[in-house]
Amino acid sequence: MLLAWQPVLLEPKRGLDFSWGAGLDMAMHDGLTFGHQVVFTFGPLGFLGVNQLWFGDLAELSFVYLVLIRLALAAALFAGARRTFGAPAAFLISVVVASVDTQLTEIVIVLILTVWAVMNGLSGRRALVLVLGLGAFTGLELLYKESFGLATGLLTAVALLSLPVKRVAYAAASAATAVLTVLICWAASGQPLSGLPGYLKSLEQIVFGYAPAMSLSVTDVNWAYTAAFIALALGILGALQTTVGCTQRQRIGVLLLWIAFWFQAFKEGFVRADSVHVAEFLEAALAGLFAFRWRREHRLYALLGSASLLALSLAAQSRSLSSDLDPSRDVTVAFNEVGDILSASRRATIQASGEREIKQAEPIDASLVGLLQGHTVAVYPTEIALAWAYKLDWRPLPVLQSYAAYTSALDELDANFLASPQAPQRILLQPTIGIDGRILSYDQAMTTRAILCRYRVMRATPQFAVLGRGRDRCSAARLIAVDNVDWNEPVPVPPAPGPNSMVLVDITGIGIGGLERFQNLLWKPAQRSVTLNGGTAQRLIEGTAADGLPLSVAGQLDFPVPFNMIPQATSIEVAKDGQSRTGGRPITYRFYVQSFSPLATLHR
């Protein structure tokens, strides 16, 4: 583990990914309830995957988890490789493989462990210890990162069905342990028991809405699909040759373990198919091959396949092995980072440096800071790290960052929060630019309208605006027109009928159905796009397309540029990748108008 140590970035930073990490830590520090006050792809134990020193005590626990997971990976790789290559060669191989940083470490560990268990036909006390441990780990992962919890649960289920005896009893014991672990960890993380149903409900929305909304395809990594299926074939070969002479149940079990592992890693790597995620898949597949005991006649395949996956994973990130593997440097870095975590003064220095860097990179005008201080504040849409750096009284929208509110239920959760007495008194607003070529106000249209209806600009600079909360100034939306059209067919937007009114649209008929549901389960569905005023097509999230997308407004109702949320559309057109006009009229546009009254006095 020490010889293959990868540096840990401890200093707090600004930016999209660092900000959701800050949000997870701040939510835990402030005692917010997950599933109700906080919704994201990570649960209340998600701070274990956040290495930055936002808060010293949480960073210590995160570092302990990191060390344990890295130690378990090193041990699993060595144990797996030793069965094929002997101890000396296995040590060198495991150091090289472990030196390649991976975000799917937990799944690799479970694969190697479950393949070993099935191959040894565990029973009795050893089998009971194994199933209880796997159940506990699955429960832990469900509160850490939802997708990891589901992946470890799937691998555990396959392994249990592959054991020679007492499969039902072991499955019941493992499931009970998982449930008990969830309850214990939920309570230990300060979450109220009454909040657990809400967390499980939000988990469903987050998991099943992820692929349609967050999919990404970067053409520079299209070559990796070939590598992925070569890895699948290598693993199938490894499973079949490993289980020669075993029972049919063992053979099928080991094969299914590899397929389940590959499927989970493929989803993690290719739903958002960019260089970082593709490298994560390749690194996981590389490590997973050492779950098998390779026979002498197949060892060349294992070595060549492993070397190829290693080279490809490095190439995907434009890295070299020497940049990842430097044992002398890695041991020094490991002990230095342990010292940083254990020393209160060194932690304080790192935190101060991070705070200073965030403020320098994104300075907020002193007059804006004055408007924020003494009030509860949400940061919208993404840059949560600012709330930490400027020590604001943070009160977030439940979905930590706007792009993750990709279903109507999640959008409604945020909108209802803004309409409640608990809503933040101020919003620190960034320029309204969406991710992945998306229109920010279309990510969560109900929430956008709630902000427009409840908040006004108190002061703005080119970088930020401060919004203050007042009474609701919007009427109920009123239907004014309906159009049924085909894909790729432009539709004129009805003009706003009054001087203080906004035109909205609900778009139905573009959801995932038929065989595309199967495609969504296995990989990702086709992307939807929207074109306004005959311009450039922009990404449209089908899960929130029926939430009342703002189109145009009459009067000075929108926020000033670059904080404006209404695109002033005169025409709208929806398309789907690979979909031409069908000759039918599958898409329905329902246009509404919503009236605005003058802004009421702000709540102070």
Structure description:
The chain is α+β, with helices and mostly antiparallel strands and 604 residues long. Helix content is 51%, strand content 12%. The longest helix has 30 residues. The chain is globular.
Tally the helices: what do you get?
Answer: 21
What are the segments in which pLDDT stays under 50 over at least 5 consecutive residues?
600-604
Please state the structural category: alpha+beta
Physical arrangement of strands within the biggest beta sheet:
4-3-5-7-6
β content, as a range? 5-15%
What order do the helices and strands come in, and which of them pair?
Blueprint: H1 16-30, H2 56-85, H3 87-99, H4 105-119, H5 124-144, H6 146-162, H7 167-188, H8 196-214, E1 216-217, H9 223-242, H10 248-270, E2 272-273, H11 275-288, H12 299-316, H13 321-324, H14 327-342, H15 344-361, H16 366-372, E3 376-380, H17 385-389, E4 393-394, H18 408-418, E5 426-429, H19 440-443, H20 445-454, E6 455-460, E7 465-469, E8 478-485, E9 491-492, E10 501-508, H21 515-522, E11 528-532, E12 538-540, E13 549-554, E14 571-576, E15 587-595
Parallel strand pairs: 1-2, 3-4, 3-5
Antiparallel strand pairs: 5-7, 6-7, 8-15, 9-14, 10-13, 10-15, 11-12, 11-14
